[in-house]
Amino acid sequence: MQERLADVELPYNAVPGLNPLTSPTGEIFRYIIESDRLDLREITELHKWVIIPRIKQVIGVADVSNYGGITTQYQIEINPRKLEQYDITLADITEKIERNNVNAGGSMLSQGDLSYVIRGIGLIKDLKDLGRIVIKTVNGIPVYLSDIGTPVYGNLERKGVLGFTDGVRDYSDGVEGIVQMLRGENPSRVLEGVHEAVNELNNEILPGGTRI
């Protein structure tokens, strides 16, 4: 849209612009996630990859913001002696991780009237996947990342902490979601859809002991 606006001929001193999808009063729903089984990292991942995508499917929802929690990092605690033993540099490790953490397209496979899209799924899913990356081979034997270091979970530096209390619950460190409505939508209809999505998540999707 910005590129198209740049090509439009406007009167002198006219400055084009785009309004945001939401207004300052577009916030219509807030929620927290509580769980007696998941830690803060797992709750944050669940929110970003399961809860937010489901709520954003509701017609009239512009966005869902995440507040609190932690952003997971995959970290490798390297053993310097192993680097020297296998003649490996940190640059070698970085290159191998980058090359082994991608998806790849594979064109189409046609069978009769049907066509199948072929994709190679290569993104790292957990610490085990990270540790199984081959850094080099020595005399035909692979040297895995786990042979020269220990993959561990870490997190980005936190800029703040979300606290919540309502007289019943008292969380000193939690995760909150804020739902924003598209400009011009009917709040009652959008809220109804959000409540339906929350009920579906609580009753059918979220793991036991975890609720919105």
Automatic annotation (TrEMBL):
One of its GO terms (molecular function) is xenobiotic transmembrane transporter activity. Pfam families: ACR_tran. GO terms for cellular component: plasma membrane. InterPro entries: AcrB_DN_DC_subdom, Acrflvin-R. This is Cobalt-zinc-cadmium resistance protein CzcA. It comes from termite gut metagenome.
